Structure formats: C-alpha cells, structure tokens
Structures
1.
Amino acid sequence: MLTTRRVDAYHALTVVAPGIAEPFRPGHFVALAVGGPQSSMLTRRAFSVHDVKPDYGGTVEFVFTVRGPGTAWLAERRARDTLDLVGPLGRPFPLPRDPVTCVLVGGEYGSAMLFGLADALLQRGCRIDFVLGAASADRVFGAMRARRMGETTTLTTEDGSLGVRGRVTDVLPGVIADARADVVYACGPMAMLRGVTAVSVEFDIPVQVAVEEAMACGIGTCMTCVLPVIGDDGVTRMVRACSEGPVFRGERVRFEDVGTIPFDALGAPGSPGGGARHVS
C-alpha cells in the first residue's frame, strides 16, 4: 500500500496495483479481503475506484466510510501494509462516441467514482456539469475537484451547511435544463438513483447509474447483490450488480422492487416456469 489519508468524513487508500490500473475503465470496482490473521472476514468488500494512475507505477485509489468491523480494520491500515484485492471488476460506464453535454450526479462518497468518468468524457470533448450532494458538508466528496473540472458545479446538503439546502434531485431539473444536457451519469445511494432516474426520464434523456448494492464476492458467485432489471426484451430478470453491473440504464432498474423478487420476474416463485430462485 502506498498512502492512506482522511478526506473529511471519509478514508482514501492508494495502492500500487498495475494489474488493476492498466485495464481499468470508469465504473469498475475492486474487491478487498478485509481483516487480519485473527479477524479476517469470510467475504470480500467491494469498493468503487476514485482515481487510477497507470503512469505512476500503476496506482489505484478508493474511498470509503467506516460502516462495520471490516471497514474499521481497513481504516487502520498504514503505508507499507499489504492488501489483498481483486479487480477491475464489473461493467463500466458506456462512453458517448461524440462530444455531448453530460451531467454527473453523485451522492456522498458515491461521487468518488465520477471523477475518472469525467476525465474520460473530457478527453472526448464532452461538457461536464456536476451535481454533488450529501447530508452535511463533510460528507460531500470532491467539491473542489468538481469545480476545477466541470463547466458548472452545484452542491446540495440536507442540513444546508454547504451549497443549496435539499437534495440533488431538487436542483437536477434546473441543471439539466440550463446545460441542455444529453445524458446523466449517477452514483450514490439507491434512493438517490431512483430520484435521478425519474428526473432524467421526465426530460427524456438517457441515464446511466452505478448501483450501490451489498456485494460479498464481487465476481457473480454468491448472489447477494441481485436486483430486478428489465431486459431488452421487456422481461424482468434478477441480475447480479457485481457482474452485469454495477452500471445499468436507470430506467431499466426496478428501484421500487429492489430487495424483493417481483412476481413477474423470470423464474420468480409462482411465475410461469418459476422455481425457488433463478438468476440469469
């Protein structure tokens, strides 16, 4: 491991991992084994990637908050400690072929994933507008970097301690209209993604969301991260966020049914041909 630092309410770890940095694309994530010899966890923990520098020995930085014993152990790591990580994993963000206007929406440390995406979009001549939000000022991630990169940056906090009081969905319609946006990219809590998708659908523009689902293995084996997604054929399937995602077309995700198996999903109990559980 190279460095560890605090970023307001979050921890940022940078590791030397050229095998991950080289094939990385914005939207990919990594899965880490957490815990020491006496405290190792059975499953890995998934983390979205904030920054990758293939030219500097192949460094990968990811951002997280302490939520339990695994991330608490990770927060105590120091320079020269070694970490066991696998990546890059998942399906990355699709990039537009032509220069377009893009609104990037981030909630809390979900914003970390958006900056590699912003770099890639800028390289393609796209315009970038940021909307970043959180409960309070110390939980808004990347505000200064967003201001440097974006044509505009709009910040929201639920307590009013930074930017506009409210949520990202309160200001998003105005940002989309003012920028004449062509596409929305978003990463953050599921409730936020549901709201961002609803706004984007209202404006009839595509929306790509990176979902935050609990992932145990990160490689599509354990089935803990399944969620209902509508396929090209109109059929709802329970798909794995770690392998078929984490990036999905927002309007295809049945956010209101996340955490359940909808009765009309392929293979759902009671549906035609249904069994106890089918995952495709």
Note: The longest helix spans residues 190-202.
2.
Amino acid sequence: MADRDFDLFVIGAGSGGVRASRFSAQRGARVAVAEDRDLGGTCVNVGCVPKKLFVYASHFRDELADMTAGYGWSVEGVGFDWPTLRDNKTREIERLNGIYAGLLEDAGVTHVPGRATLVDAHTVEVEGRRYTAENILVATGSWPTVPEIPGAELAVTSNELFHLDALPGRILIVGGGYIAVEFACIFHGLGVDVTQLYRGPLFLRGFDEDVRRHLADQIRGRGIDLRFDTNVTSIEKRGAGIRATLTDGSTLDADRILFATGRHPKTAGLGLERVGVELASDGAIRVDAYSRTNVPSIWAIGDVTNRINLTPVAIHEGVCLAETLFGKGPRSPDHEFVPAAVFSQPPVGTVGLTEEEARDRYGEIDVYRSTFRALKHTLTRSHERTMMKLVVDRASDRVVGLHMVGPEAGEITQGFAVAIKAGATKADFDATLGIHPTAAEEFVTMRTPVGG
C-alpha cells in the first residue's frame, strides 16, 4: 500500500463516511475524505438534527393548549418568530460542522474539500488533482427526488425548507413517507394551514398497518387536511402564491409546495460506470454483505446503497467497513431488528417486523394491541390516543415486532429495542414490572392477544 497516497479514500463526509474515516485512521490507516458540501451530510445539515429542532419548536402550541385547558396555566401575549428559530438552528448546525472538522483532524484524517470522481479502481480526482488509494469508499448519501411535472421548479424540497425567508401561511406537502409526515406536523404545529397529499391509499408504506391507520386518524384529528389517492399534475404561479392542479381536476392554492416524494441514491456523475461498478435500476450501488462492490477495491455504505436508509445504520456500516479493512477481520453490518422513529405528532416508534411481515415469516403469530387515552389528556380537551402493539412468534414466544404511536414513542422504543434485539420473549415482557403511571408500562401489561 505504500506506493499509493492513501490506504482509504472516502467520497462523502456524512455520518457514515466520517465514521468510517475516523475509525479507519484510528486503526492506523492513511485516510482522506472528500466533501463538496458541508461536513456531516444530510443528517446534520438538512435532515435529522435541524428537523428535530423544528419538531421541538412545533410541540409548544399543543403543550400550551393542554396546560391552559386543564392544568391551570394562563398565558398572554404568546407569539412565534420564524427567523429566530431558523437562525438559531443555523448557528447550531454551523457549530456541529466545526465539531465534525475537529473529529476528522484529531483522528488524523486528511480533509479534501471539493467534489470527488472516480478515475479508475484506485484513483479519484478532486478539483483537478488526483489521489491514489488502495481502497475507495463511496458514501455520498441520497438526494430528494422531484417529479417531472409542469411547474415543478416552483416547489421546494426538504433541503430548502430549513432556510425559508418567511413562514408560509399555507403549505401543500406532496408525499407519504416519513419526511412528508414529519413536516406536515411541524408546520401545522407552527400555525401553518397544512394539506398533505399522497398518491397511494395510505401513507408510510412499509410500516405496520395499524400504525399507519392510527397515525392517519390522529393527524386528521389535529386539523391537517390529509388526502390519499391524490397527486399533483401541474403547478403554476398564481399572484403571490402557487396553484396546484390535482389528479381529480381540482386545484389547491398555497404559499409553498413541498415535494417530499422520496430520495434517490446520489451516484450520478461520480464515474462509477466508467470503472465498472454495478448499479441497481434506481442508481443504488450494489454491494455484498461486507459493503464491497463488484470492483474489489471499491466499497459503499449508507443511503447510496439503498439498504436501510437511516443515520445510525450508515454509522454502523462505517464501523464495520473500518473493521473489515483495518481491524481484526471481516465484519458484516447487522440489519436485523433496527429501531426507527417518525417524529410526527404524535410520534411513531418501531422495531422488528410488522404484523404482515411476521405472518409471512413465521405463519402462526400472536398480536397484542392496546389503544388508550394517556393520563395527561384526562384533564385536557385533546382527543389524542396512544396505540401500542406487540407481534409475537407463537412457536418460540419471541417478541419479533414492537410498534407505538404516542408521546415519546422514539424514546420508549429505543429501550425496548435492546430487549427485542436480545431475543426477549412475551413471557419476559409479562414478568417485567411496569413503572406506574407511565404509558410505557402498557407494553408489559398486555395479556390477551387480539389476533393470530
């Protein structure tokens, strides 16, 4: 390897790329990472982190309503200032960018600013300069997909939402994935008139059916105009706003239109085809169980492989890659029982198999489900209801799926994910005492199956 500039050259300094770079360097490798945008990738800059900050801001209106309706508080003169939230968010992201730069520097990783492209199986080019490496890792992530319809350029994607000059009075959100759902709830919580459209019969495809239906009911109950089997066919400028024509021929006027219609692997223009790296039909890089492409010296992790597109998964894949190349031996990422959350209002937490997936895999299953009004809301006017669900393989008694829609669902699910990953059975759940009064105790007190 000494005749090459680096042992590992990483293209993309998002969560996965940074983790792979740092861990490889800590194992003695000579590592460089190229990035043509801000350090930290989608998650830090236009994804998980700023989105969660916006989620926190959007919760306040409901909390205030609950406290004044049932808990004796009286508050006057409350207002919301969008520029304050936006600019404070930006300062925090800039701070995190600096932390990422420091992490790379402290680990001894060479940061190469600019867009990197592949020249051959061991060479990349950045801003006209070429670098050689024994191994090349592609970790360029994904990018928002915008449908090809007339007037699409008038809409924005999640990338631009974090930098809007002003908060819109009305927003139309097109899409049914978690990004669309989360932003619909965020903007509604900030006082925006929200309409969400999804072309299919029910949003959040891939999630448990009970979760999808329950969340749809809760979102509609909050006042979001949620429409299924509906899409946008064209967009036009209309005075100071925008008008969308829908598939049924009707029109909707809004101040902003967000396309949250999916993301695609960011592989175009990298030179992958030139060096013979095999791509899937959606542009994702095909890799084996160890994140290696069909070209032995080229590897890929994260969203660009379109396996499980979550930040912790990309980080995990980066750690495994570093261990495989420079550690004690090959280590493949573990994609079983990966917990996830949707930061909707109310939020969703999930780990393991959906009821449908469990039936396909195990045949005979037991399903436990509980829907209830949280203690907090017994004193408020809120009609919000929490839903919890366990899916159990009948033969082994193992809990193979856990799903929740309700306050703090992500926090609660993270804890139970440890038990499910460890192979906990329904008997283990039953033998665990609950913490009273909490919502989480419901998961250890459900005794009667609702279906099998």
Note: Residues 152-261 form a domain with the FAD/NAD(P)-binding domain fold (CATH 3.50.50.60).
3.
Amino acid sequence: MKYVGLSKQVQRNNINSFLLLLVFPLLLLAMFYAFFFFTGDQTTEDANSYFIRVMPFVLIGVGIWFLIAWAGHTAFIRMATGAKPLERKENKKVYNLLENLCISQGMAMPKLYIIDDDSLNAFASGIDQRSYSVSLSKGIIDKLNDEELEGVIAHELTHIRNRDVRVLIISIVFVGVFAFLAEMAFRSLRFAGSGRRSSKDEKGSGAIILIAIAVTAVAYLISVLLRFGISRKREYLADAGAAEITKKPYALAAALRKISGDPMIEAVESRDVAQLFILNPKLSAHKSASWDNIFSTHPPVEKRIALLEQFV
C-alpha cells in the first residue's frame, strides 16, 4: 500500500467527512419523499406535490433543531458526562501537560475538565475556539504515567486540530433527528387503534404508520452507518497525530492497553456522547472479532495498539 502523509490523510478525510455530512440532509428529504410516495396513490405527481408543499416546513424544523443543538451542545455534553472544570491549582501536572503540548503545536489551549470516575477514559469536544475542551476521568489521571497521559491528551488535541469534534457533533445532531422521527413513528403505532374510528379508517392509519416506521427505520440505519464511517477513521488519524506530536507512540499504545481494561464511565448513558471518547465507554473493548464490531463507532483497540507499536 502506498504511504500517504498525515497531513494528506487529514485533508482527504475532512473532504470525505464533509461529503458524508451533506448526505444527512439529503437522506432526510429522501425519507420524506419515500413516505409520501408509498402512502399516496404511488404516482410521481402526487409524491412531488406533497413533497414540495411539506419540504419548507421540514427544512425549517430541522434548522431549528440544529441551531438549538449547536448552541447547547456544550452544556448537554457536560451534563451527560458529569464533567467539571479542572483548574491549574487543582492539578498542576495535568494542566502543564496540556499547556506544553498546546504551545508546541501553536494551539490555543482548550478548556480542561475532569470526570469524577475511577475508570479510564477521555474525550475532546467543541465546535469553535471558545468551546473546545479536553475532559479526562479521575481514573485516567491517577493510573497513567506522565508519558501515557501526555499521549492521551495529544490524541484529544489532534481531534481538535483536525476539527474532528466539530464534524462528530454535527453528525450526532443529524442522527438525533432520524432517531427522534423513528421513535415518533413507533410511538404512533401504539395509538393507531385508539379513538372512535371505523375499521376501514383504522386499517388505513395503521398502514400509514407501518410505512412511516419502515421508512424512518431504514433512514435511521443509513444515518448511523454514515456516522460510523465518519468516526472510525478519525481515531486512527488521532492516534497517528498523537504519535507525531509526542514522538512516543509506545506511550499511547500502553495507555490504550490500560484504558481498554476499564473504559466504562458510569455517568455516560447516551450512545451519541459515548462515541466522543478515546474508547467507547458503552461497548466492551474486546469485540474485535464479534458481529458488534461492524456497528462500533471506534476501530478495534487491538488494531490501534498494533499500528502504534509498529513505530516503536
């Protein structure tokens, strides 16, 4: 395989991710078009007519959803993880590690947070310079040596430098739209037979709901697969970026090995937030050979460690 430099890989991955993100709104519109087509007289003219009338309202609704999520994502992530600010006076070692790495890369220093959990994990988040942050669990601070912790922080800084966190947050917002619509379709099925309706009306409404469930379920599955395509490749790039920054790939490999033994952050219940972490805390670290790995937001930790150890 021909070697491609890190900067070239980042550029290529950003372009691919941008194209993937364009697919999300197109997928949403295609979902509504499919719904109108299958619930109407199955003629293109009827589907086009309904679609043109409804499309502006769909786009406005999604736009409002997106703006609310964009503005409130920082508070939501902090609530979902229990992260709290970590000041220099509380832990000079960690603060200095982050500051020195930022100086070496000419980066503005992101906010630093700590998660009060003895498990080992970390993540970066934010969409711009004001909201960029790095969060570390209490366990990862206490149980990693300085070189290993430096590698983890460098990994998260690479996500910020490569704008991975922005792309992931955008993808989370869009997938959330499909998840909400799918949930609404399923909930509607419960009440399909409620109220005073004729048998014919009940059958008609039931058929429409079943079509809605099928269409939203397919769209949701496609959106999740697109999100996986965005997040999995970027973990490899962040590992490579951390190795380049610290010149110590062995340190990050050792850190990943320790983290894989206990990545479960108890406060994290949202699968969307879980994908931001260096290892997904909602999944076992030992599923590389299982069916579940196909739907994992992260590549197998064993492969990541093996790639890093090639440069030792």
Note: The chain is about 65% helix and 5% strand.
4.
Amino acid sequence: MGVALTKGGNVSLTRQAPGLTGVTVGLGWQADTGYDLDAAALLCGPAGKVLSDEHFVFFNNLTSPDGSVRHTGSGAPSGPDDQQIRADLSRVPDTVEKIVFLVSLYEGAARGQHFGRVRRAHIRVQDQDSGTELVRYDLAPGTLAGETALCFGELYRHGAEWKFRALGQGYASGLAGIAADYGVDVLRDTAPPASSYTPQKSYEPPTPTPAPAPAVVAAPAPVYSAPSYPPGSPSMTCFFDPNHGPGATTVSWSPQWGSPRPVQACGSCAQRVQTTAPPFYTPPQQGYPQQVPQGYPQQGHAQQGYGQQGYGQPYGGDHHHDHQQQGGGGRRFGAGALIGAGAAGLVGGALLNEAFDDDEPDMVVNNYYED
C-alpha cells in the first residue's frame, strides 16, 4: 500500500518509484441510486489554466490532443476504482505544468444531488508498469455538503520530478465553478468554439424561469384635511375651545384639582385667565350637561362668547366673605350658596379630568444608556 495523504498533503512519485514513466489514476466512490458521476482531467499550463478545450479529458473526449492522457471510459468499475485515467508522463508536453483530476455530478444541481450523499470517495495513483499503488487520498466523511463538483488531486512538476497533491476542493457551482478557475470555455454559459468533439451530456444546469412578481396594489393614502389658520399662526388650537382658532398665547392654567400647567390659548381666553384668580372658569363642553347654581348673578368678568351665570367674582385683597360687586351693594354668601358652589366645582372638576384625558395621552419615556 502506498503513502496515505490527507487534504493538502503531497508526495514525490519519482522518489517513490525511480524511473517512473507512466501512472494510472483511479477514482472511486459510493453514491445513492440515480447519481451519475463523471471523472475528468485538466491539462494546465504555467498560469494554472487549461491549455485548450481539447485538453479537457472526459467521457466524451477520451484523449488529450498529444495522446499523453487517456480516459478509460465510464464502463464497469476496475477493482476498487469506478473510473480510471492514465497519464504517460514521458509524453506529457513541457507546456503542461500540472494535471488536475476531478469528479462531477451530472445535472447535480437540477436533480438536487450533492457530494454530501457520496461516500468512500478516493483517488489513488499506481505505477502503470508494475501496478503498485504509490499514493492514496481518501476524502474524510462529513466534510462535504452542497458541492456538485470536486477536484480530488493533481499531478504536478517539481523540477525534474513528478509529485502528487491531495486537493479535496469542492464547488457548489458545479463544473461552472471549475470552468471559472481553470478557464474551460466549453463548460461556460457561452457557446464553445468548434472542436473535434460534441458533448453528449449538458453540463449547465437548467436555468429556472423566475416567477412573475405578484402585482402590488397600493392602498390609497388616507386623506387628511388640516385645519386652515391665518398665515403665521401656530398649529395648536385654543386649549379652552378649539373653535376659537389657534392658541397664540402661552398662559399658566390652574385647574380645580392638580398643579398649574402652561397651555396655549386664544387672545380672549388668555386675557381671561390672566385677570381671573384661580380656580379658573371652564367653558361648557358640548355633550355634557352643565349644572349651574341659581341666584348668583355676576358682573365684571364676563368674557365675550361665554355665558357665565352663577360664578362670583374673586375675593379682593381683604380676603373677607363680604364681596363688593361692581356698581354698588355688598352681599354676604350663605351656606346654601357655598353648597351650590361646591357642587358646581365637582362638576367642573369632572369636566377638567375629561379634558385632560382627551388632551394628553399617557407617555412612557425609555432611557438609553451607553457604556
């Protein structure tokens, strides 16, 4: 038994068999039913590219132009080998720097086949005269998955010697990938030049026809009519009544319950808030019944556009219960008036809570920290 190599290893055949003139390269495998594997050889020049399409030796071009490399055909297996290729080293032209041996799956991609289902793949080199095995490379199981073509090994010149290197280089793109690396035009998508042979097998997997893209019907964009404001007006409406128009002035609003807050108000509402002591008057809201205590006429602070019945004037600086009305006569509020005012305050507070719920939704602030 010859030298056992692993992927990437190499050995001098000339030193293994002094006076070596010819070798037989055997390639073997075990594959599932329906797999069609083909061995081939590429005679490459100094640039690492095949010399011509005729120097691609395979089942339909069994001999190189000079006759130094011959494919024995894809008939019955010979011993442990499924196919064999013979090389007369003494006749290989000096322009050939290396001979690459490969195996491909015929229409592997189209059939959904790959080397992950190929077992016990090997390449071995024998002395053509004596039949002695000089070197062997067994591909490690489980190292291949989606490849449809594989370079097993290569014979190459090293000075006056011939050496062998274990490659194990797989190509998921099949022979097209090998053609790109080694410049085999007959394997490319373009039509090959006229030659002395016509391939009986097609190496290009069929190009799938892309399915037409489904028509995408864009949904009509929602129509939004923005409220019209005079040029230069702010976009926020009056806090107290949107029908008043834009809120052009920021004022401090003190609700019946809660803390003061800045709001945008129209000019008239802003003046009313700034000249009226808290709690400020809340205008009637459409759809909500307003309970107004009777018997408390007021003068002096009624604003245009607001009905303000039942609300007394703010207390003066003396903070007594005696309140001086504009135009004369004082009045003292009794217990009934206080109870009525308290009921009105509760209703106004409920309306304010409703207004706050509508105006300001809950907000969650997420803080981001960088290290």
Note: The helical segments are 13-16, 108-111, 175-182, 267-275, 335-359.
